[in-house]
Design goal:
Elements: E1 3-5, H1 19-29, E2 31-37, H2 41-53, E3 57-61, H3 75-85, E4 90-97, H4 105-121, E5 126-131, H5 134-143, E6 149-151, H6 158-166, E7 169-173, H7 183-191, E8 197-199, H8 222-233, H9 237-251
Parallel strand pairs: 1-2, 2-3, 3-4, 4-5, 5-6, 6-7, 7-8
Helix pairs in contact: 8-9
Length: 256
């Protein structure tokens, strides 16, 4: 039984220099592949080095909306060079975050639109960060169609889910659905088409309900997170592993 963690910030400072142990632990738990997204030019090299050192890890590169304040237009040239030279699985993590008040929406949209154009140029899927910005993201995707990707930490409506699926996207579910009080999210996980769902940890973030408060999330926890999806859908865990892994390979072809 093998799982794919489609979103894990393994280079995060919270992990210090424990990546070797974290990857070994994940492999032992049945997590065979880990997608590590870059979030700004300053961490692209670290992500690339980490993925070269650990064959289970694969890189994506992008400028995250929460990092656009420190971004410069020439960073797009750096991103292009990484996409050209390092064979990443996706452009990401990119997107829009309208949750944080007074954050420069115009600048976010500039970098998001520019990175969608790069994804088109290199025929790559995208890893989307979306908070309070589902409809604006969909507007940009219709304007600049790409070869699909993953709506990471999906938390939209069933109607928005249907629109992402129409555009070739899978929907990422992780630790947030393990909380019994997350009723709307659990309803989505239970009822959306299973062929449109992929699993993720977003480690060290979005810790699942079973972790003590303050403990960082880890990729090895993915099978326990998947158990929640199996329970919600009344399906064997083996089937959840098989289908979600196949979904990840379909939407991120370079994973294989």
């Amino acid at each position: 039984m093998q799982f794919i963690d489609t979103h894990c910030h393994l280079d995060a400072t919270e992990f210090g220099s424990t990546q070797h142990a974290l990857v070994a632990e994940a492999l032992a738990a049945g997590v065979s592949r880990i997608v590590v997204p870059g979030v700004e030019c300053a961490n692209f090299a670290a992500v690339q080095t980490l993925c070269e050192q650990h064959p289970a890890c694969v890189a994506a590169f992008g400028i995250h909306p929460m990092y656009v304040d420190s971004a410069q237009p020439q960073d797009l040239d750096v991103l292009r060079a990484y996409l050209q030279q390092h064979n990443p699985v996706a452009v990401g993590e990119i997107g829009l975050d309208f949750f944080v008040e007074n954050f420069d929406r115009e600048k976010q949209e500039f970098y998001f639109a520019a990175q969608l154009k790069l994804a088109r140029e290199f025929d790559l899927p995208v890893l989307l960060h979306i908070r309070k910005a589902q409809d604006t993201i969909l507007k940009h995707l219709r304007r600049t169609p790409v070869r699909g990707g993953i709506a990471h930490a999906f938390n939209g409506s069933p109607q928005q889910a249907a629109e992402f699926i129409k555009l070739g996207f899978k929907l990422g579910f992780g630790g947030a659905m393990t909380y019994p009080r997350a009723t709307r999210l659990r309803e989505l996980a239970a009822n959306l088409p299973l062929e449109s769902i992929v699993l993720e940890t977003d480690a060290p973030d979005i810790p699942p309900e079973f972790l003590p408060r303050g403990e960082p999330n880890r990729p090895a926890y993915l099978p326990r997170i998947a158990q929640t999806l199996a329970q919600l859908r009344i399906m064997p865990l083996e089937e959840i592993a098989r289908i979600t892994s196949a979904n990840a390979l379909a939407v991120l072809p370079r994973l294989s």
